[in-house]
Amino acid sequence: MDKKNGVENPEKLLEGKAIVVTGGGGGIGSEVCMYLAKLGAKILVSDPGTDIEGKGRNPTIAESVVEKIREEGGIAYPNYDSITSEEGAKNIVKNAVDLFGKIDGLVNCAGNIKDAFTLDMTLQDFENVLKVNLIGAFLIGRECLRVMVEKGISGSIINMTSVAGILGNWGQANFASAKAGLIGLTKTWAIEFAKYGIRVNLIAPTVKTRITKTIPFFKSEEEDMLHPKHVAPVVAFLLSDLSREINGALIAVYGTKLFSFHIVQTEGAMKKSMWNPYEIKDKIKTIFE
Questions:
Q1: Does domain 3-288 have CATH number 3.40.50.720?
Q2: Which of 62, 152, 189, 241 is the most exposed place for a label (fewest CB within 10 A)?
Q3: Domain boundaries, the chain
């Protein structure tokens, strides 16, 4: 890697890489697009310009990000298709291949919310959130993976999950379910596509965006600590060759604090014969610890 002032120069870290960013016009997505472009990546800013519930269309959302990137000398193009349909996902990927000839990376920032207490949540509210956050991620990811495999590209895919998908959160049965599903999807892809040299990882950001700004927690925290800009360097790291040994992992971002979550198997308890409920109660501490 080039050196600058005696240290590694990040300006060429992603030079020549073609990256698709879904939700590229949003809070996290726009910061990611602009940061990656500064590192030399060519960006397809994919965003239909919907509201926080996934409704409506506004092409200027993607276009404004593209304009900012180009003003700074970067390479970027807008895309307005939705990841929520097979046709839309295929169009996004075709657009990227037509423009760049390849896809080196996918960053799934597209998301929506519709919070409600479970007893007040409609089936439509539940399905709509899963459609964008989980099904959409599957559809666009599948098409990008197809291109990477066919072209022999050792690419990188990054899915945005949430702490809600790990720990749960009041009023977010739909969102938490989608983000938990995304963890399973990511880990499965990491296993399935490792033999092709493709890495698939997760980021769990805690940031203030138009989607989260109405939640009480985000009103009380320091503005800079929750700024979506903190997610961008982590994305760049996972897209670059610096992380070529990392696959199926999760990095959580809380401002300048980076950490992870792990599922740990306990030592547990075992007996020679079938358990009965009373024996389980007696050993429950051992089972959990």
A1: yes
A2: 152
A3: 3-288
Stated pTM of the model: 0.91
Q: How far apart are CA 162 and CA 119, in angstroms?
A: 23
CB atoms within 10 A of CB 276: 9
